[in-house]
Amino acid sequence: MTAPVIEVRELTNRFGAQIVHERLDLTINSGEVLGLVGGSGAGKSVLVRTILGLREPSAGQVLWFGRDRAQMRDEERQRVERRLGVMFQDGALFSSLTVLENVLVPLKEYTRLREGFMIELARLKLALVGLPPDAADKYPEHLSGGMRKRAGIARALALDPDVLFLDEPTSGLDPIGATGFDQLIRTLASALGLTVILVTHDLDSVFAVCDRVAVIADRHIVVADAPARVAHHPHPWIQECFGGPRAARLPGFAPS
Amino acid sequence: MSAEFTWEQRDLHLRGHWTLEAIASLEAQLAPQPAAARVHGAALASIDSAGALLLLTRFCGDTTERIGFSPAAEKLIELIVARRATKVAKLPRAHGLLGMLERAGIAMVRAKNEALALLGFTGLVLERAVQVALGRRRLRLTATVFHMERAGLDAVPIVCLLSFLVGAVVAFLGATVLADFGAAVLTVELVTYSFLREFGVLLTAILLAGRSGSAFTAEIGMMRAREEIDAIRALGLDPIELLVLPRTLALIVMLPLVAFLAVLAGILGGALVGSLSLGISPGLFLARLQEAAELRHFFVGMIKAPIFALLIALTACRQGLSVSGSAEAVGRHTTASVVQAIFLVILFDALFAILFREIGW
C-alpha cells in the first residue's frame, strides 16, 4: 500500500461549548474509495470541510500528501488544492454559467491551454460523468438533481485531481439513478486512479462502491474497515444502522 | 515535468508526463501531426484524461493500436474512447452583429410579452377583487391588516426621514437659485408645491417599491420555488385571493397614508432649513404655506398614490408568481420587480404631469 493521501491527526473541532470532534484520527490511502458514514449531526460535513481547509480546526493536524496543511505556504497550498476535487451536495454549480462554462472555470483559471482544446476537454469531462452532449449548454436550473450532481463531479474533475470528495452523491436520487451513480463512481475511481471520499447515508452505496468505511460517532472515528467487517462492530449506533431493516436486504451482509 | 514524443516512421513514442499541467506548452505550439499507425506508451511516466484527449485528438484515432501502455493508462484511454463515442452536435451560435440583432429582437419580444402579461394579471386581480366585493369570495382581513402593518406602518420612519432630508435639500436648492432674484422667500412655495404635488408620493412609492415590493416578490417567489403555491391550488384555494389581494389592498390603503406623512415631513424639512439658515421664521413659513397650499395641489398628489400602490403591488406579486425553480430565479425576479415597479411609477407620474397640465390643475 502506498503512502496515505490524507491524514487527520488528533483533530478537535469546537463550536463554542459544543465539541464536534475530539482527538479524531483518520487516514485515507491512495487509490481507495472511503465511505464516511455517521448519524445526522455527527460531524461528517464538518470533518470534510476541515480536511479541505474550508474550516480551521480548533486543534490537531490535517496532512495533505504527507505535508501539514497549516505549515504550507499559500503557493504550495494552492497547488495541492488543485489536486483535490469536491462535489458539493447539490452540485453547487455557478447558476449564472452554463454547465460547460462551469467546467471551464477551473481550466481557464489554472491552465494555459488553447480555448478550443479546453472546450474539448470540458466536453470530455461531461461525457465521462455520463451527461448527454446537449446538457453542456444548459443552465443548472434546467437540469434535474441527478444531472446537477453529475455536472458537479465534472467540474470537480476538470483539473484531473488525485482525490475526489463527494458529499451525499446519491441523496435525493431514485434507486435507479443512485445505482447508476454508484457505478459511475467505481468506473471513474478505477479508470482515473482516483482516491474517493464518499460522505453518505446510503448503505447501498457503501456496500456497492466503498473499499473501506469510516464510521463517525461520539466525536471520533469509531472504526474504519471493510464494509462487511464494520457491519459487525459492536458500537450501538453501528448496530442500529447496519442491523436495521434497511440493511437486511443488502448483499454480502446478513445481520447476526 | 514535460510531455514529449518522437516519431519513428509512423510509430509514435510517448515519453514523460502527459498530464494537464505538462501538456499546456506542448498543446499551445503543436503543429498538425500525421496520423500514427501505432502508439508506444511504455516510456510514459504518467498520463491523465487531458493528456489522453490530446493524444486521441491530435495524434491518433480511437482505434489506433496501442502498445506498452500500463493497465491503468489503458483503462483510462478505453473509458475516454467509450464515452467520447457519443458525438456532439454543435449548435450554431450567432456571433457579432447578427447575434446582437438577435438579442435585441429577443429583448423586444420579451418586453412586449411582459407588458401583456402584466395587463392580463391586472385583469385577473381586478376580477377577483370584484368577486370579493360581491361577496362571492372572502376578503382575507387578517392577512390584509398584517401586510398593512408590515408594508406600510413599518416603512413610516424611513420614508419620513428621507422626505425630511429631501425637503431640506430642496429648500437649500431653492434658496440658492431664488436668492439671485431676491426672492428667497419663495422657497416656501417651492417646497410646498413640489412635495404636495410630486415628491411626497413619488418618494414614498419608490421607497415602498424597493422595500415592500421586493419583499412581496421574494415571499411569493420562495413559496413558488418550494411548491407552496401548487399546494395552495391543490387544496382548492386561490393564490390570487389568498396572497395577491391582501397585499394589493394593504398597499392601496397604506401608500396614500404614508405619502401624506411624507409630505408633512418634507415640508417640515424645508421649514427647518428656512428658519435656521434662510431667515424665514416659522410664522412666516406657515402664513405663506397657508396661501400657497391650495387643496387642488394636495389632490394632485394624493390621487396618484393608490394608482402607484396598485402598480407596485401588481408588479411585485406577478413577478413573485412567475418564479420557477431555483433560488437564483427568486433573486432575478426580485430585481425585475423593483426595476419594473419604479419604472412604471415614474412613467405614470410623467403621464399624470401631462394630464394635470392639460386640465389646468
The assembly state of the depicted protein chains is heterodimer
What are the secondary-structure elements of chain B, in order, as H or E?
EEHEEHEHHHHHHHHHH
Q: What is the average of the pLDDT values of chain B? A: 88
Helix content of chain B: over 70%
Largest sheet of chain B at a glance?
5 strands, mixed
* Percentage beta strand of chain A: 15-25%
Structural class of chain B: alpha/beta
What's the β-strand tally of chain A? 10
Strand order of the largest sheet of chain A: 6-7-8-3-9-10
How would you spell out the order of helices and strands of chain A? EEEHEEHEHHHEHEHEEHHH
Helix content of chain A: 25-40%
Shape descriptor of chain A reads globular
**Low-pLDDT ranges of chain B:** none
State the distance separating the first and last CA atoms of chain A.
Answer: 31 Å
> Hey, which two chains have the biggest interface?
A-B, 30 and 32 residues
CA distance, first residue to last residue of chain B: 83 Å
